[in-house]
Amino acid sequence: MATSGAVLVLTGAFDPTADLVIEELNRRVVPVFRADTAWFPSRLALAAGLDGTDWRGTLATDRRTLDLATVRAVYYRRPTPCEFPESMPREARAVAMAEARRGFGGLLSALPARWLPPPGRAADAEYKPLQLRVAAECGLRVPRTLITNSPVEAAAFAERIGTPVVYKPFTPIRGTVDGQSVAVYAGLLRPDDAGHPSIATTAHLFQEWVPKAHEVRLTVVGRRLFAAQIHAGSAAARVDWRSDYDSLTYRVCEPPAHVAAGVHRVLDQLGLPYGAFDFVVTPSGDWTFLEVNPNGQYGFIEQATGLPITAAICDYLQGTDT
Q: CB 3.0-4.6 Å disulfide test: which of 144, 148, 151, 290 passes with 278?
């Protein structure tokens, strides 16, 4: 693994998390080239040829040029899709998008560089059903879960488990209603909700409610673990802490040995070097896995606790973490 050369940061225009990493890499005098895939092809030029076993060439904007041979690592955060002129016919845009994905994206994936995270594996790991199965296989406690579009099955699940039931969206749901920004978070079902006809409209994920003393965000970078308790200060945050950040307090903690071993097994099985894990810790001290985000935010944890997560990410990107 190269320990010199440039780090290519692929992300959107507004990304405070990437900003933290870039600032630290700059402090370490590591060359950084930041770009968004949305810049291709109008604002980002690509030219590369196969020289023996290596692709050699450049990525260039109107201000900077990156020699692809110097790329030691790629920080793949939240780039936005390639953009094409609205004047292009819809069919032509679809073809251009597919060609860009396989040509531009394919070339980047062929670079002999360390990725955090590898985009294909990260995309697979976004599937919650896969996460839950892998977590259970790796020895972590997981909630009883149902995925269904059947109101009858949902009602039967709620009756069978005999505890409150939580609905969770599979993906972040955000939008605008009547000019107001809205989001869908995990929520406790009311008695009549479990059999609601709207369940038939798409796949829904239901889980048993796990009693909480607090929750834990466990961020893993390579073999390093950074754990912080999250204590909710409002009724909404006690169901889903993302719904009320202002009410939260944090405390550094250490995960139990079996949890630490389990999260490493999960990331090894998913082929990921990074994961932001969420756990519920019950009043009796048991840790229950909820989910893992292969590219999750961590800046709010670092700011609140001082845990050196940015430094660990930069160590990984530099290849100096071992």
A: 290
